[in-house]
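Example S7 (structure tokens).
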């Protein structure tokens, strides 16, 4: 039945919602071809790149105190400036120095306008391509005074296995693609990456099981029936001199918030979304506005459109104190509205005063987060998320108070933990009240492909998370993550299938939020213990081996039973 429902609910593939972005692309290409020459590489560094973790640790060591991790990705030019500062002014430890040297090779052209430490298969250095243990490898590269292009061929082979109360499963996937990035005339950066993959071995049950845990597979309905999947990212970006203004259009993962393990505002728990983005920066103040498109459905029925607009303001009062404000609205069945496209506005106020009949159906969220560095090697952060605020009922103690939903998070990060040079410790406590991220119209939930745009934790839950990361060497890393979660959910109906109660634990079911005055953790209780262990090795530059272990114990308190599941994964990732 589950397999049948999956096929029925995913007959239509994701419809194209890039008409606005295509128009912006054409406008950029027409306007920016006349831009003046500049020296910086402008394309974005993918949010999954490990350089961000390195920069964060250097921030906590007071080498680059101006680095702000609350909005990722940033450009290669910005990353390069931070790396230059670490190289010229910092005194990282022996392992971090070797990690830095690897990044100085990878970002060599961005920093020094040189390609001496790189090799290209289709170039003069092609004969040394496969034997280059420490050089940066490209399938093809080209640079001159006006343009740069770097082309790679990524390939991944991965194996997944699970064993436990949900059955035994094994699945093998193979993936290959093509990526290109570069700059034009000094003010335009671009990046495109396409990957296609297929199932090499595994039955339908294994595929369906992995779909529940893999956002890329979940967003590819054809994978289940055709054994094939694909995914891509890409963007074009314009930047003025001194980077006071930049414009970006494309599809990329975006992370927002100070969370050290997971983030409340925007996270990597789903696939990338399409967006147009404006960034303004002046000294210690940065402002970002984004208008994008996400995949939506309402109880299994595809929506004509589902869009998200957000803006974020970051202010750095000092090297030790940063504060940010985030505001967003999810709009369905309204492909485009200038009410939400205005980059200088208060989104919640604009929504409430738009006069549109659907405004009460839109899902607005806002939040504030703070990061403090009280001493060297230590950072503390606190985040407050407010979902669908109604000021007139915020202090009520009855059903009307259900209009207001809150989430919050506190966290700490400690580098050189316990005086161990290459050990980092992260701690977070996260709490989401009932119905957070969901919405009573269902179609405006804070989701993309039915997966949370924010924290992975379901509503009506809390979590304690502890993560240890140890750099065994500059190309070997060991990570341990423990999470303890408490959740409550459940939706109940009467004999004629009329909903009686919804405890608010399902992000895709916000209907019935006024059936009772909700109480935190009221409903069908489940406690989870989740242990994860990851080993990442890079014996040759751009040849990466990963081994992942995860053990999940679900204590179903409402059913008086415990379920266990063991997950194993091994993958080889090559960037030729």
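Recovered sequence:
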């Amino acid at each position: 039945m589950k397999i049948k429902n999956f096929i029925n609910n995913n007959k239509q593939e994701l419809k194209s919602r890039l008409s606005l972005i295509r128009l912006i692309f054409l406008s950029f290409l027409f306007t920016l071809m006349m831009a003046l020459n500049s020296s910086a590489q402008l394309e974005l560094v993918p949010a999954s790149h490990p350089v961000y973790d390195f920069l964060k640790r250097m921030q906590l060591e007071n080498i680059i105190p101006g680095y702000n991790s609350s909005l990722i990705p940033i450009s290669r030019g910005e990353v390069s400036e931070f790396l230059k500062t670490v190289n010229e002014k910092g005194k990282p430890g022996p392992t971090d120095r070797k990690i830095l040297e690897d990044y100085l090779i990878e970002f060599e052209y961005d920093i020094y306008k040189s390609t001496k430490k790189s090799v290209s298969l289709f170039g003069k250095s092609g004969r040394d391509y496969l034997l280059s243990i420490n050089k940066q490898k490209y399938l093809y590269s080209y640079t001159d005074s006006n343009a740069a292009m770097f082309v790679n061929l990524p390939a991944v082979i991965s194996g997944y296995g699970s064993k436990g109360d949900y059955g035994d499963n094994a699945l093998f996937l193979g993936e290959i693609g093509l990526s290109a990035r570069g700059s034009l005339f000094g003010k335009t950066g671009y990046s495109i990456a396409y990957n296609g993959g297929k199932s090499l071995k595994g039955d339908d049950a294994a595929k369906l099981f992995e779909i529940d845990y893999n956002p890329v597979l979940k967003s590819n309905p054809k994978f289940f029936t055709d054994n094939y999947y694909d995914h891509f990212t890409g963007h074009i970006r314009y930047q003025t001199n001194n980077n006071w203004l930049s414009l970006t259009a494309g599809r990329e993962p975006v992370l927002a918030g100070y969370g050290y393990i997971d983030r409340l505002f925007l996270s990597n728990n789903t696939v990338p979304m399409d967006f147009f983005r404006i960034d303004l920066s002046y000294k210690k103040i940065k402002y970002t506005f984004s208008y994008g498109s996400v995949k939506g459905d309402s109880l299994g029925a595809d929506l004509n459109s589902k869009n998200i607009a957000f803006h974020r303001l970051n202010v750095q009062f000092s090297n030790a104190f940063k504060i940010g404000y985030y505001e967003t609205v999810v709009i369905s069945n309204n492909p485009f509205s200038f009410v939400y496209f205005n980059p200088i506005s208060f989104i919640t106020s604009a929504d409430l005063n738009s006069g549109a009949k659907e405004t009460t159906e839109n899902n607005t969220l806002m939040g504030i987060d703070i990061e403090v560095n009280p001493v060297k090697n230590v950072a503390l952060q606190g985040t407050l998320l407010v979902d669908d605020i109604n000021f007139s009922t915020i202090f009520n103690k009855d059903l009307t108070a259900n209009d207001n939903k809150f989430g919050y998070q506190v966290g700490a990060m400690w580098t050189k933990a316990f005086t161990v040079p290459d050990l980092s410790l992260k701690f977070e406590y996260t709490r989401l009240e009932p119905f957070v991220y969901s919405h009573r119209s269902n179609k405006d939930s804070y989701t993309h492909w039915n997966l949370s745009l924010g924290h992975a934790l379901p509503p009506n839950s809390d979590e304690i998370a502890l993560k240890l990361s140890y750099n065994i060497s500059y190309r070997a890393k060991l990570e341990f993550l423990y999470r303890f979660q408490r959740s409550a959910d459940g939706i109940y109906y009467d004999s004629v299938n009329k909903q009686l109660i919804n405890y608010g634990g399902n992000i895709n079911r916000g209907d019935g939020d006024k059936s009772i005055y909700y109480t935190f953790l009221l409903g069908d209780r489940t406690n989870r213990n989740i242990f994860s262990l990851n080993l990442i090795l890079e014996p040759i530059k751009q040849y990466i081996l990963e081994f992942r272990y995860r053990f999940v114990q679900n204590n179903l308190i409402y059913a008086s039973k415990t379920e266990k599941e063991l997950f194993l994964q091994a993958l080889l990732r090559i960037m030729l």
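Notes on this example. DSSP finds eleven helices and 30 strands in the chain.
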